[in-house]
Amino acid sequence: MDFISPEGLRLDGRRPFELRQLHAEIGVLDNADGSATFEMGNTKVIAVVYGPREVQNRSQQQLDHALVRCEYSMATFSTGDRRRRGKGDRRGTELSLVIRQTMEAAILTNLLPRSQIDIFVQVLQADGGTRACCINAAALALADAGIPMRDLVASCSAGYLNSTPLLDLNYLEDSGGGPDLTVALFSKLDKVTLLQMDAKVPLDVFEKVMNLASEGAKAVTQFLREILMENTKKLAFAKEPLKV
Amino acid sequence: MLQSKAYVKKTRHGRVLKVVREHYLRDDIACGTITCTACDNSKACLSASPAPIIVFDTNVVLRQIDLLENSAISNVVVLSVVLEEVKNKDLSVYNRLRTICSNPARNFFVFSNENHRDTYIKGLAGESPNDRNDRAIRVASKWYHEHLGPASKVVLVTNDAENKRKALEEGIDAQTVEDFVRKLGQAELLDLLVGAGTEDAQTTADADDNRPSKRKVIYPEHKLMSEITSGLHKGIYHQGKLRVNRYNGFEATVSTESLGQEILIHGRIDMNRGFDGDVVAVELLPQEQWQENSLEKIVEDVDEDESEEPVGLVPGSAEQLPELIETGPAARPRGRVIGIIKRNWRQYCGSLEPVENTSSAGGKVNALFVSADRRLPKIRIQTRQLENLSNKRIIVSVDSWERTMRYPSGHYVSTIGDIGDRATESEVILFENDINNKPFSQQVLDCLPPLPWSLPAEELQNPNRRDLRQVRVFSVDPPGCKDIDDALHCTLRPDGNYEVGVHIADVTNFVLPDTALDHEACQRGTSVYLVERRIDMLPKPLTEDICSLRADVERLSFSVIWEMTPEAEIISAQFTKSIIKSCAAMSYAEAQARMDDSRLSDPLTVDLRNMNRLAKIMRQRRIDRGALTLASPEVKFEIDSETHDPLDVGMYQIREANQMIEEFMLAANVSVAEKIVEHFSQFSMLRRHPVPSPKMLEPLLLTAAAVGVDLDISTSKALADSLDRAVGGDPYFNKLIRILATRCMTQALYFSSGDCTPPEFHHYGLASPIYTHFTSPIRRYADVIVHRLLAAALGLSKVPGALREKTMLTSVADNLNLRHRNAQMASRASVELHTLIFFKNRPTDTEARIVRIKSNGLIVFVPKFGIEGPVYLTGKKDKKDESDWIVNEQSQTTESRDGKYRFKVLDKLVVHIEVVEPQPNRPKLQLTLVDQANECMSIK
Ligand SMILES: [Zn+2]
């Protein structure tokens, strides 16, 4: 199958190095301490954060740092075919773990001993790149909850099809059989906090795909920063009348 | 800008899904016009004036692709909406269109109108997809006109009246194809048009009368696609590829998965307009109609004189055997075609049937096209240049086949040359076998190192390249060989063992992965050897100079070096890139003469003798393991160096020297195969030879039994041994049996190791558990891949990324198998052509052997010329019981009624060979029996 036309356009009209359209909203649930939705094209994820709060199960309490828990799920309506996706399936467990580890690395957990932070991530609509989208949504929700973090974490995926590195694969490209690499970065610290790929590729290809994904993640960071900025301005504006 | 496309799709399991896809619209898509200042014109190729910019609509592209391929058409905008529609409707047209677009000389520009923010349109409510696409084409045409300014001219070519009317209303210059071509002012182009009006054509005597009043239905109607689908589902119909008998165009088979058995289709009516290679739906006939053809005749009695077994080269393998109709006790199911699921129409090569009435000079006339390929029906075409074409080899395309037409209708595409001209006929052979003999493109030539090439100094410093220039390396090849890809050395070590090296041209040092050169070589797959010329896989500077391991020049090579005991046991194998300097490039005859000349004792001769001794031991060991020594009579022509006409023909002589080289090449291939599979078990390019099924060996057993030879086919070892035991009264008997055995085997195949399990790697003919091709990278692409894999296995380079893509190697292997088969077919056809030219003025009487006895004649094999063909004993029209001959098929004997003659299979007899021309422009060889008294027996 041709994923890129000889004219250099992908199936959806993007060029190989382009992200899909990004969209984010912060504070979508009033109940929660922090919440956000994040969209990459047709992939839409909601992340909700509760905490820091008291540890529910005392035996799990950590004396020197916060307990971070994460639950990932996929809405039944998230894909076209109506299949029940339990929380307990392997992919779900794995993703929960990946998101938790990535977020744990970002949060300054030692500042919040004996507390618990719960992150709930749900995929509302899936069209490839859910992993990256979940991390981005979780990052925004954590920021919204005001949890102290080392740096803003942002994630992006990239793949390799028709001998070309492609940024931010959609579902169609994702099922093209090529490698799919997800990377998450602390862009200020210039550190990689997550790197996942379950395919064998030659080293030079890997480098290209990795670089592309990192570039993508940096672009996402930029976007996240803008969104947060805007949100902060809004909050500041909302608070102003109170002062008067 | 973002548009979202939503549509409803049915999944494979029959569930209905709503699919939403993003569709991004862009503002950075260039118009492709050289003079445009608004767009990025780095890839531009169109000129805005004075020539108009041409836009074709989908139907025009689909129908008139032959016209588009003509170089007279240029400055064309191909819209992505058109490409997409063409792709969905006909992939082969799509690929042809893409080829045109990628040719920079043609000035076809692909404009992604569907992704351009100004030319993308949304379907309106109630608008059909077709109407929407037509509108998109109009919008894009109009956009071009507006974008390029009022001075520009944009022509929309469409044959859809409604579309044309709307276009004119919107101010677009719309024309029909006919008008458009007429304005180009080249009469020849009009012949390329499909379905140009038939009303003004003069009907010639030979062609069909197609006036409506006289039309009668000849073929049954094709069933509707929905009926076929449900029929297939219910198991009433069967789907499969129609395979027309290469030797009899009135007989075809369809292999179906649903029935697990081949269905026989007999006659053109039952074939119901199917072409060879079409995917068809077949309905079985009632069982009582599965009548047995009791004894196959050489010629089927059919209503036309087209079908007849030709005299040709001896088949070299099972693939080249005439597809004979089984005569087993169980009659095979017979069926008829009720619908065509997928057409396999391509361009065909042949000539026009002579027409008596040629008075219609200049006007449009109907003519019948006949191909040399017997699988094809005649094709009716219309032409305005009948006189020009009557003695030419031409290429035509098929357009349609109506129920009322005996023959399909098509149109002229191009002319190759004069019939009978040797160059033209060779060209025809290449065309028929889909062999690319176009000169290499500039992009490909740009990949070559600058000439003259000499060993770069840095290669001497390269720690990974062993300097073997001091070693006494030599090569042995056929006389006159210019593309020398292998050389050898053999030196005695102080410890009494031998160091034996096989050095192969380091082609991959020059053919780098993913370059234009690499893609071209991969496409070509192999060099093709015709009798008088060679079509190279790689450009000449590489094949004959830079890579060729010629004598006395320093060359890069890839070496396999073994340490061997005097008993030819391999102690170790090393692989290394190297530099060699061959000291002698010998022919087989020269090498043989050196070895045989007892007076010589120079080091080179001693090396040769040592090697030969080792090779003999290796060969014997291989035979003991069960390798088959098969035989195929390879014919060698002596060609006049000036006229290129054949002067003499004879069998290729196999010497010990040939076998010596062969032995070491086999050993190198096996060593390399083991090495690469060890490192890359999932994507190594290997070669396997499947065990022949007992059914394939049946004809061999039948013949052997008839002459009292008992063959054991249980294993290759048993077969090899029983072939050894099969000695008859004369020395040629054994060779004959081996030739018959060879043709029962299928050919070996390339495959990716990831696609088979290790036991399937087995090479039956060589009795080797694993095999590959490493030794001829100049002329075979498989070897190029193997070189890269070996280099990667040694850590000298990376594995080319493409090889790791799962299906990549599989598709490369498939292509190589196809290319090799085509190359072989072409070589055979070329030899046949030259045999024909040779016998034209040299009718000859010569000895022949009977290889098969049929109801109305004998199939004989002429060892001296390597040809095989029928000798008819009965006339075509004779009824079986009136025949002068009594045939016993079981014992493969035949006897004349008067008892004067008696023939048994493998008997010797004398035949007369001459060229006859029963139909104009179709000369062929004819074999007739010469009886002892040297008098031609009356046969026809
Ligand atoms: Zn422009």
UniProtKB/TrEMBL annotation, chain A:
GO biological process: nuclear mRNA surveillance; poly(A)-dependent snoRNA 3'-end processing; rRNA catabolic process; U4 snRNA 3'-end processing
GO cellular component, one term: nuclear exosome (RNase complex)
Protein localization: Cytoplasm; Nucleus, Nucleolus
Keywords: Cytoplasm, Exosome
Nucleotidyltransferase as UniProt keyword: no
Exoribonuclease phosphorolytic domain location: 18-148, 151-215
Major subcellular location class: cytoplasm
MF terms (GO), sorted A to Z: RNA binding
InterPro entries assigned: ExoRNase_PH_dom1, ExoRNase_PH_dom2, ExoRNase_PH_dom2_sf, PNPase/RNase_PH_dom_sf, Ribosomal_Su5_D2-typ_SF, RNase_PH
Cytoplasm listed as a keyword: yes
Pfam families registered for this protein in UniProt: RNase_PH, RNase_PH_C
Sequence similarity: Belongs to the RNase PH family.
Protein's name in the database: Uncharacterized protein
Automatic annotation (TrEMBL), chain B:
Gene3D superfamilies: 2.40.50.690, 2.40.50.700, 5'-nuclease, Nucleic acid-binding proteins
PIN domain segment(s): 52-165
Entry's localization field: Nucleus
Keywords for the protein's UniProt record, in alphabetical order: Exonuclease, Exosome, Hydrolase, Magnesium, Nuclease, Nucleus, RNA-binding, rRNA processing
Family of the protein in this entry: Belongs to the RNR ribonuclease family.
Keyword hit for Transport: no
Gene Ontology molecular function: 3'-5'-RNA exonuclease activity; endonuclease activity; RNA binding
InterPro entries associated with the record: Dis3_CSD2, NA-bd_OB-fold, PIN-like_dom_sf, PIN_dom, RNase_II/R, RNase_II/R_CS, RNR_Ribonuclease, Rrp44_CSD1
Cofactor: Mg(2+)
Official protein name in the record: S1 motif domain-containing protein
Any one cellular-component term (Gene Ontology): nuclear exosome (RNase complex)
Species whose genome carries this gene: Marchantia polymorpha
Chain ranges of the RNB domain: 465-796
Biological process terms in GO annotation: nuclear mRNA surveillance of mRNA 3'-end processing; rRNA catabolic process; rRNA processing
Keyword Nucleus listed: yes
